[in-house]
Structures are given as structure tokens and as C-alpha cells.
């Protein structure tokens, strides 16, 4: 049993849709785009098996029943040369106590488990998360449009600290403690950006699946593209007047998309403006320093304990 937990904005969707869902050596449990089952699982009974293990960690769990389902249904359902894999980036954002409980339950029910975690420098990941927020939360303009700094402050207030907004060191540490370092694969988004083929080979090596098939499946895929500058500017303009916000509130989803100026098909955003540029977030020196200071301790732990090449990619150390 292999669990991939993202994190968000680390090419997770590309791996899920292009590779995991289609690789001949992976028996994929979800997340599957378009699935009508809970958490976009492959089937209803798979969700009922996984829900108490991964998501309902504040409720009792019948480990014996879960173990029986895994042994009698999931394991036999996988091919002789297949690994069983589930991927949900939300598991890397559920809170560390819940995450620890979910791993303990998974091991108790399934036996030996492995975990795949993708990381990204918070200095680029947080702006990407913010743009994803703008893109996905289309109802927000009925309230108030927020800048990146306002969004970051709100996240920090909600979670308790800036480190918790982009938490990753704690998740890795818990996984290593519970599963053993050899069963925890930690990969960097920056490595994917700089050398996709090598990154996919390394991920395939950890999973134990054919690397060339992985590379072929991922070639040319870039899912969940981000907003364009014209679209963010249009959101700001709509929000600048009470009339604009009221009209937005009364509009259908399709009309909202049209008023912003994009079509969104299978997670790929397209602009209707010629020569449009992908949206970017310019961090103030003060905000950038806050993020650097908050991430430094966790980054140094990853270098010391797992020997990750964070310095190569400019992480704060």
C-alpha cells in the first residue's frame, strides 16, 4: 500500500491524472477526476474502507474489518505486478495529529505501507496556493477580494502560525518515525521543474514501477494551470464596486467564468486575451523575509535528516 499526499501545488494533479490513473503497474484507488464516490475514490466500497482510516480519525475505527477488506478485496484486485496506490493532497493539510492517526490506522489495517511526499519552497508555493484560491473560490467576490498579504494573514490566523500554513517538516518527520526512512519518499517540485525526466525516474524507482511508462504518460501534461494576469485584473475590477459584486453574486458559474475571461476544461485554464501572461504575485521584502524565517528551521531538518538538496534549489537554510 502506497499513499501519496501531495503536497498541494507540487504537480500532484499531473501525477494523479496522467500517471497514477493510467500506469499499468498501479492499482489506483483515487483521487480520480469525475468520480462520484466519496473523496473521488475509485469505488464506493473503497471509500468506505478508507474513510475511517484516513479521514474520520476522530471517530472509532474497526481495524479488523478494514484489514479483512484489504486482504480479501483490495489486495486480490490488484494485478500480480501492481502496487496499490492512493493519492489525496488534502492528507498533507489535515493537521498533524490527524495525519499521525491516519498512518497508524493504515499500518494496522494494511501492514507494510509506504508514503510519497512532494515538497516545494514556500516562497513560490504560497503565491501559487493564493492564485489557486482565487481561481477556485469563485464565490469570494460576493464578499471581499483579498490580496496575497491579506490571504496569508487570514491563513495564519486560522491555523495558528505561518509554519502551519505551509507545514511539511512535521508531516515528513511523523512519516519517517512511523514507517521508517526507507519507506518515505520525499521529492522536490523544483527538481521536477528543472529535470522532469529524472524526477519521474526517481519517483518510479521509489514506487517500483516502470520509469519509461511513467515518463511517456506524463509527457506534455501540465494540469491545473494557473490564472492569467488579465483574469486577476478582471476579478479586482469586478470587486471594486458594489454593483459589480451584486451582479457577480447573481450570476451563474458559467457566466462568472465568462465575465472573468477564461474557459476551464479538465483543469487547464485558457485565456481569451491575446499575448496574456500567467498571473504572478510580487512579494514585498517584508513578506518574503517572514516566509524565509518561518521555513528555515524545517528546511535545515530536512537537509540534516534526509540529505535533501535544498540548497541547490534556493531554499532558506
How would you describe this protein?
This protein is an alpha/beta fold and 317 residues long. Among the domains are: 2-121 and 163-218, 3-Layer(aba) Sandwich (Rossmann fold); 229-271, no CATH class. The chain contains 15 helices and seven strands. It has helices at 12-20, 44-55, 63-77, 96-110, 122-136, 148-159, 162-165, 169-179, 189-194, 196-207, 211-218, 229-239, 242-250, 253-260, 285-306; strands at residues 2-4, 26-30, 83-87, 114-119, 184-188, 262-265, 268-271. The strands form two sheets. Strands 2-3-1-4-5 form a five-stranded parallel beta sheet, with helices on both faces. A two-stranded antiparallel ribbon has the order 6-7. Strand 6 and strand 7 (268-271) form a beta hairpin. The radius of gyration is 21 Å and the shape is globular.
Helix content: 40-55%
Order of strands across the main sheet: 2-3-1-4-5
Separation of termini?
A: 34 Å
What is the β-strand count?
A: 7
Oligomeric state of the chains?
Answer: single chain
Strand content is 5-15%
Structural class: alpha/beta
Shape: globular
CATH class of the domain at 2-121 and 163-218: Alpha Beta
The DSSP helix count reads: 15
Fourth-tier CATH superfamily name of the domain at 2-121 and 163-218: P-loop containing nucleotide triphosphate hydrolases
* Contiguous runs where pLDDT drops below 50 for at least 5 residues: none
Average pLDDT value? Answer: 91
N-to-C order of helices and strands: EHEHHEHEHHHHEHHHHHHEEH
Tell me about the largest β-sheet: 5 strands, parallel
* C-alpha-based Rg, rounded: 21 Å
CATH architecture descriptor of the domain at 2-121 and 163-218: 3-Layer(aba) Sandwich
| CATH fold-level label of the domain at 2-121 and 163-218 | Rossmann fold
Amino acid at each position: 500500500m502506497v499513499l501519496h499526499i501531495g503536497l498541494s501545488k507540487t504537480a500532484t494533479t499531473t501525477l494523479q491524472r496522467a500517471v497514477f490513473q493510467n500506469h499499468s503497474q498501479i492499482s489506483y484507488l483515487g483521487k480520480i477526476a469525475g468520480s462520484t464516490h466519496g473523496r473521488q475514490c475509485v469505488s464506493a466500497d473503497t471509500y468506505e474502507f478508507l474513510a475511517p482510516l484516513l479521514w474520520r480519525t476522530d471517530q472509532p475505527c474497526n481495524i479488523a474489518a478494514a484489514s479483512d477488506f484489504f486482504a480479501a478485496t483490495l489486495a486480490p484486485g490488484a494485478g500480480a505486478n501492481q502496487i496499490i496506490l492512493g493519492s489525496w493532497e488534502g492528507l498533507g493539510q489535515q493537521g498533524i495529529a490527524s495525519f499521525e492517526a491516519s498512518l497508524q490506522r493504515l499500518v494496522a489495517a494494511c501492514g507494510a505501507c509506504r508514503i510519497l511526499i512532494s515538497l516545494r519552497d514556500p516562497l513560490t508555493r504560497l503565491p501559487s496556493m493564493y492564485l489557486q484560491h482565487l481561481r477556485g473560490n469563485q464565490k469570494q467576490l460576493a464578499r471581499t477580494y483579498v490580496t496575497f498579504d491579506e490571504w496569508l494573514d487570514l491563513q495564519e490566523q486560522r491555523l495558528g502560525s505561518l509554519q502551519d500554513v505551509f507545514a511539511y517538516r512535521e508531516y515528513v518527520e511523523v512519516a519517517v518515525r512511523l514507517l521508517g526512512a526507507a519507506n518515505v519518499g520525499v521529492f522536490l517540485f523544483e527538481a521536477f521543474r528543472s529535470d522532469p525526466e529524472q524526477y519521474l525516474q526517481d519517483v518510479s524507482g521509489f514506487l517500483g514501477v516502470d520509469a519509461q511508462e511513467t515518463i511517456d504518460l506524463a509527457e506534455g501534461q501540465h494540469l491545473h494551470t494557473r490564472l492569467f494576469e488579465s483574469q486577476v485584473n478582471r476579478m479586482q475590477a469586478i470587486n471594486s464596486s458594489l454593483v459589480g459584486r451584486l451582479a457577480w453574486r447573481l450570476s451563474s458559474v458559467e457566466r462568472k467564468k465568462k465575465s472573468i475571461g477564461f474557459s476551464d476544461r479538465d483543469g487547464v485554464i485558457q485565456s481569451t486575451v491575446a499575448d496574456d501572461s500567467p498571473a504572478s504575485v510580487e512579494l514585498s521584502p517584508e513578506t518574503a523575509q517572514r516566509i524565509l524565517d518561518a521555513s528555515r528551521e524545517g528546511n535545515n531538518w530536512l537537509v540534516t535528516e534526509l540529505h535533501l538538496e535544498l540548497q541547490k534549489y534556493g531554499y532558506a537554510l
